[in-house]
Specification:
Helix content is 34%, strand content 13%. With 438 residues, it is of the alpha/beta class. The longest helix is centred in the N-terminal third of the chain and has 17 residues.
Length: 438
Amino acid sequence: MSADRPINADVPAAETPKPDPPPAPKGPSPKRRRGPIPAALKGIAALVLVAIAFIVAAVIGGSGGSESDPGSAAPAPAGESEAAGAAATETAERLGYPAFATNNTTRVGGSDPAANAAAVSLAVFPSLDPAQRPAAVTLVDEDDWAGAVAASVLMSAPVRTPVLVSSSGGLPEATAEALGALDPQGSGATRGAIAFAIGDVATPGADRITRVKAGSEAATAAAIAALRDRLFGSGPDHIVLAPADRPEFAMPAAAWAARSGDPVLFASGAGLPRPTAAVLKRHRDVPVYVLGPSSAVPSQIVRAVAELGNEVHRVSGEDPVANAIAFARYADGGFGWNVNDPGHGFVLARSDSPLDAATAAPLSASGTWGPLLLTDDPTDLPGPLREYFLDVKPGYTTNPTRAFYNHVWVIGDQEAIDVNQQAEVNELAELVKIGGGE
């Protein structure tokens, strides 16, 4: 079998039958209200909740611990362990994790990005003992999607801070609960800080908070890139340049930044902003990868970057769904996911919820480490995304326990991505038998 062809290359691409859903309006809907959950889903969810205590402790396993603490804590006494587990389970239920799980998908079902961020943070950092806690967290403004996407880079090693949502008016309840469970204490990798606050947002206190001044999308991202260099102690291997005025094309950059440590900078249709140009001049020898088509990042901006002395490449698709798939497939040396075969993790979010890209980014830097994919409709899986999942669908010939497996995290509640679409994704991720061998 050729190494360039997936094991399921000869499997016919059959679509999963599903009922005709009612038409849904297109366009952005940044704030959704939670809709009623179908009765069948409630029954399944009730069974799932019985297992939450095990899921919270087991999902992503030891990958959630802070890398600044190489040791592992001694086991807690049985009584303390049970109490901690019960508290974590109660918090997880309130935060909507997991609202509904299948054998190949897990939903983080918060009704807003703050709840999703809190649930993701506790999934990656279960926090039942000190070794499972992050050294710090990153707090981003609920109205600053670009700052949140840029701040995703701080989830990369050695800092590894999950993103939580805040505001100038106070901490959302979900964020406050997550902070209580995560209990960050700072480390050498965070320079003692327990939180990095992007902009003028509420924090869990005044001590040991490192603030990043917010401005325009480009200015905030440049300030985060400078903080990244100080904390990491070195410059980046690559830089991602994303569109500031087309968030749906910039979203996939968050997952890559968390996984790689490559900073995200911003450009707009008007030209290359001065803060972005300043960072590029400081790193003239670092290749730049422009994310998005020319309709989102015009060619004159690419030329302006090249004139500064940076090598420039474009990664793009004609629409947000295709753009995310193109980034998932892309590879250029050490840059890019190169996910073109079975055996990977994926994160699926709505293209009109850019803040969810940042809050879900820790899932791309732990556990099954996978790219962010986008859907543009609450009920229907986009055709190109269905074809991509079929192309990387896992299969086996004789022994399923020796096969590769796919897993998909679904971000958002029923209003964002409904259970029918999740069920189709689950089927597309399912391991199938290839051929007639015994």
